[in-house]
Amino acid sequence: MQIDQQLVDIQNIVDDVLKLAQKKGATQAEASMSKVQGIAVSSRMQEVENVEFTNDGGLGISVYVGKRKGSASTADLSKVALTLAVEKAVDIARYTSEDPCTGLADADLMATEFPDLDLYHPQALDTEQAIKTAIEAETAAMEYDERITNSDGASYNANLGMRVYGNTHGINAGYPSSRYSLSCMVIGSQSDDMQRDYAYTVNRNAALLNSAKAVGEEAARATVERLGARKINTANVPIILHKDIASSLFGHYVGAISGGSLYRRSSFLLDSLGKQVFPEWLNIEERPFIKNGLASSSFDNEGVATQDMTIVDSGKLATYLYTTYSARKLNTQSNGHAGGIHNWLVGDTGHSDADLLKEMGTGLLVTELMGQGVNIVTGDYSRGAAGFWVENGQIQYPVHEVTIAGNLRDMFAGIAAIGSEQDQRGSVQTGSILIDKMKIAGS
Predict the structure, then answer these.
(1) Using an 8 Å Cβ cutoff, are 178 and 119 in contact?
(2) What is the rounded CA–CA span in Å between residue 30 and residue 17?
(3) What pTM was estimated for this model as a whole?
(4) What does the pLDDT look like over 292-331, one tens digit per residue?
(5) How far apart are CA 261 and CA 267, in angstroms?
(6) In CATH, which of 3.10.450.330, 3.30.2290.10, 3.30.980.10, 3.30.1330.10 is domain 3-226?
């Protein structure tokens, strides 16, 4: 069946469910439906370890009876099952407590334009080719250096799917999408030291993935570079968060400015709108309509239209991120962030990665973070780390078993530079980040 016809069929199911919900007594209703076909192949020591096929679909519906909400979901898309799901949702709504903030997003916020964002690049889910790709990556890693002695495996994943959202305001829209990824992780040994590292590539278009050989060699190179890792003494020094992990810092910022954290008063950035959080040179823009973008969408999970937005303006907190519920709690309106953010583009200072090392002089280049020691309420930050000790702008030796600690407010304000060589494999596109000073807890 052609993808366009599949999309129409799903929209028809959503429309039928919404009409049924109103017949059963719902004053408002919304439904979302997804369908995904995929393949996942993993290899270990150049032998096939696992092959999985997925062919999943499901519908979720939320109904509102006045200010009471009920929800239900089903993977069975037969008429009987869909009818039962609607009836259960309405029954639940009748018995839940009233909440003045519940209900659909305002009708005038609904998306009305649905441009083609180039998110769908289908190709056959070919098992043999997937196996070949995974093994090729692992082989390239194992042959890269004699110190690569073992493998944690390689994985190839391909998913083709579609998403439809509709509600009783009249929106009933959806789009197909694809996503492909390849990863490889290997283990290296030198004397009595063992280290591991990995590499990966991801894209909506399989033709734009890095080659299997490149992924395997990158994983091996990263592993070999970590051999001979040392502990270092406790110190207060500058650090660089490598671009591969730098987006995590802005991930904490997302949590701190999300409406849910604000109305619960559980964010260190409460009452900070318009205030200086980052250096004056730093801007962050949200661009939901990037072609082929991993986080592109013309509407959020509540049907609210997405829009180009300035998130950070000359270092100042320019906007909070609201869903419908959190917006009503805070007496404002949704700005299209139900379900997450949409392609954040982080500004840079024009430094290459080599320039950043020179700018830092002496300090720690962090290439791996471990643990979840981040408190969004206070901003306190403490995570395990590994990377490389740098002196006079030159990498000296690998480092492990250290903790980096500070406070997010100080870390944001202390960003001294951001590299121009960006990692574009996620919803936040940023280069490596130089922070002027953090506490490094070592031996």
Answers:
(1) yes
(2) 9
(3) 0.95
(4) 999 999 999 999 999 999 999 999 999 999 999 999 999 9
(5) 6
(6) 3.30.2290.10
